Amino acid sequence: MKAQDQATTSPVPGIGVTRHEPRFKFVVDISIRTRSCGVLAGVTVDISESGISAMLKIEVPLAEIVELGFILPIGRVNISAMVRQRDAFRYGFQFIGSDAAQDVIRSTCRQLAVEQSLLREPDVPSD
User: Fold this and answer.
1) Which contacts of 2-11 are long-range, i.e. CB under 8 A and separated by 24 or more positions?
2) Whole-number pLDDT of residue 106
3) Is 126 contained in some domain?
């Protein structure tokens, strides 16, 4: 199992999370609308059915509710999320609300699972 698919714990006090969905490499521009910092620009790193991670240049408080905007293969998605993790400039966001947006994200993750599994090298037994 890849390190990014393993269970993680959130550093947000009082909030623990176990990863239930695999993450898929996904790199696009993302906008983050925050109450504390205004609108920020970043670049995503990976996505799962329950959240997305992104690299940001400006610090966003953990546990803040933000509005994310990014482009999926089938169009633009705007969805609310909670800032759950931070590791240097990499932030983890957990999606909240918007069943329609989550359906589009779920569909995209399934598509990425197929595409990325085709790119992996097959396991070759060693002699």
Assistant:
1) 4/46, 8/85, 10/84, 10/85, 10/92, 11/62, 11/85, 11/86
2) 94
3) no
Give the number of residues written for the chain.
127
Token reading at 127:
């002699």
47 backbone dihedrals φ, ψ, rounded to 5° = -140, 150
Phi, psi of 103 (to 5 degrees): -65, -40
pLDDT tens digit string along 51-84? 999 999 999 999 999 999 999 998 999 999 999 9
d(CA 53, CA 68): 11
How many domains does the chain divide into?
1
CA distance 41 to 85: 17
pTM of the model: 0.79
The pLDDT tens digits of the residues spanning 29-46 come to: 999 999 999 999 999 999
Domain range for 57 is 25-119
Collapsing DSSP to helix, strand or coil, 86 comes out as: strand
**CA atoms of 109 and 24, how far apart (whole Å):** 7
- The radius of gyration computed from the CA coordinates of the chain, to the nearest angstrom, equals 15
